[in-house]
Amino acid sequence: MSEPPESYNVPLGTAEYRIIVKGSKFVGYCGRAADEASAMEFIGARSRQNHGATHNCWAFRVGDPADPVERSSDEGEPSGTAGRPMLEQLVKNNLIGAVLVVSRWFGGTKLGRGGLIRAYGGCAAETLKLLKTRIRKPSVTVKVECGYDLVGLVERTAAVCSGRVLSGDYLEKVCLLVELPLNSEEKFRKAVSEASGGNARIMDVDAVS
User: Fold this and answer.
1) Which of 112, 129, 144, 187 could form a disulfide with 176 if both were Cys (CB 3.0 to 4.6 A apart)?
2) How many other C-beta atoms are found inside a 10 Å radius of the C-beta of residue 184?
3) Would you state the CATH architecture of domain 8-135?
4) CATH assignment of 138-208, given 3.90.950.10, 3.40.50.2300, 3.30.70.240, 3.40.50.1110?
5) How far is Cα 126 from Cα 148, in angstroms, rounded to an integer?
6) Using H for helix, E for strand and C for coil, what is the string for the chain?
C-alpha cells in the first residue's frame, strides 16, 4: 500500500456535460460513489437511462485514498480509447469516491483511436470542471488521558498540529478525543509527551479517510 496522500478531492454532488464531435453526441456524468458497489449502481442507472446510446463507457476511483480501487471500461469502443482516458482525468483531478460515465450516440463518422481518446477524455475533463468538490485530508483520532491541568496544553498542541478536540469526558481524569491530520499524528504525540513530562497518555482510537 502506498503512503496516503496529504489531501484529495471528493464530489459534493453530480455534474453533466454535453458535446458534439463530428456528429457523435457525447454526454458525461459524474457523481459520488462510496465503494465499488455504489459506483456500479451509478453506472447501471445511467446506462439504463441512456439505453439507446451506442456506448456507455465508465471509470471510477473509490475506497482507500492510499490504495484506491480503480476500474474502467470501454464498453465496446476500441481498447484503451474510452475508459482509460476517463480514468486518467479522475486521477489528474485527484478525485476519490467518484464515478464517471460518458455515453456516446454514434453520428455516422468514425473518429479513429486518437479522436476517440480526445473525445472521451475531453468530455470527462469538461464534466469534472463542472463538478463541485471538497478537499479532504486523511485523519486519525486519538484519545488523550490527562489531568485537568494539562487540558489547555493538549488543546493548544492539537491546534498547532492543525487538529481539534472533538469531545471530552471530565471525570477523575480527563479523556479527550482529538482528531488530527494523519501526517501530524507523530508530531502531536511527541509534543504532548515532552511538554507534559509523560503525564499525558495517548491511545489509538481509529484512522479514517
Assistant:
1) 144
2) 18
3) 2-Layer Sandwich (3.30)
4) 3.30.70.240
5) 54
6) CCCCCCCEEEECCCEEEEEEECCEEEEEEEEECCCHHHHHHHHHHHHHHCCCCCEEEEEEEECCCCCCEEEEECCCCCCCCCHHHHHHHHHHCCECCEEEEEEEECCCCCCHHHHHHHHHHHHHHHHHHCCCEEEECCEEEEEEEECHHHHHHHHHHHHHCCCEEEEEEECCCEEEEEEEEHHHHHHHHHHHHHHCCCCCEEEEEEEEC
Task: Say which amino acid occupies 46.
Answer: R
